Amino acid sequence: MMADPYFSIDYQAQVNLIPLTDGETVPDADALEAEIPAPFKLISEVTRIDTNNARLLRNLDEHANELVEIINQQSRKIDLVLSYVLAGQDTPEHRHQTLSLGGGGFTFSSPQPLAEASRMRCKLFLPELSVAVYGYGEIHAGAEPEQYRCDFIALREQDRDALIRASLQLQAKQLKARAERRAQQDDASRP
């Protein structure tokens, strides 16, 4: 088995896995781009703009704090509306929870057996990070019973980049929380 070239992090996120029907194939890059539902393209563009805005805002001096706060609040409102719109893309009968995720794919559990190397249409939702991606993956058995790995086989590079950034943001949050817990434990153990 080849090692995943992308970093992944333990994280539960919602994913829809829709098996390809007989005769259905994984699209090439142009067909994938044409097939992606509008809400996924919209959130991708909003995330790109937010990333660019964050870079610009870091360059403002300290006198612009109020402006930065207003822009952040406007961005949060847009994120809330997009989360609502994306909820319409979720199909409960295809819903699974990830166990880990990264730029190369994700792991998940499924009580229903899945065929090795089966191909799926994937809709991965990370609303708290304003990320939602649409692509195709190939299923492989995981280390534990009822656990599987889905490797992306068709995904826009900008969506892969968004997943990589999200993985790193999640890791930073987890490391910060761990450091805070450790500091609290140290404080509690001091006389």
Explain what this protein looks like in three dimensions.
The protein starts with 7 loop residues before the first strand and ends with a helix. A six-stranded antiparallel barrel has the order 2-3-4-7-6-5. 44% of the residues lie in helices and 26% in strands. It is of the alpha+beta class.
Note the main attributes of this structure.
191 residues; alpha+beta; six-stranded antiparallel barrel; 4 helices; 44% helix; globular
Question: Short summary of the structure?
Answer:
44% of the residues lie in helices and 26% in strands.
Topology (elements, then pairings):
Layout: E1 8-10, E2 14-19, H1 29-35, H2 38-58, H3 65-87, E3 95-102, E4 105-109, E5 119-126, E6 131-141, E7 147-154, H4 157-189
Antiparallel strand pairs: 1-3, 2-3, 2-5, 3-4, 4-7, 5-6, 6-7
Helix pairs in contact: 2-3
Structural class by helix and strand composition: alpha+beta
Regions with little confidence, pLDDT below 50 for 5+ residues: none
How would you spell out the order of helices and strands?
EEHHHEEEEEH
Spatial sequence of strands, sheet with the most strands: 2-3-4-7-6-5
Cα Rg: 19 Å
Mean pLDDT figure: 87
**How many distinct beta strands?**
7
Beta percentage is 25-35%
- Helix amount: 40-55%
Shape: globular
| Through-space gap between termini | 51 Å
**Most strands sheet:** 6 strands, antiparallel, barrel
Our count of helices gives 4
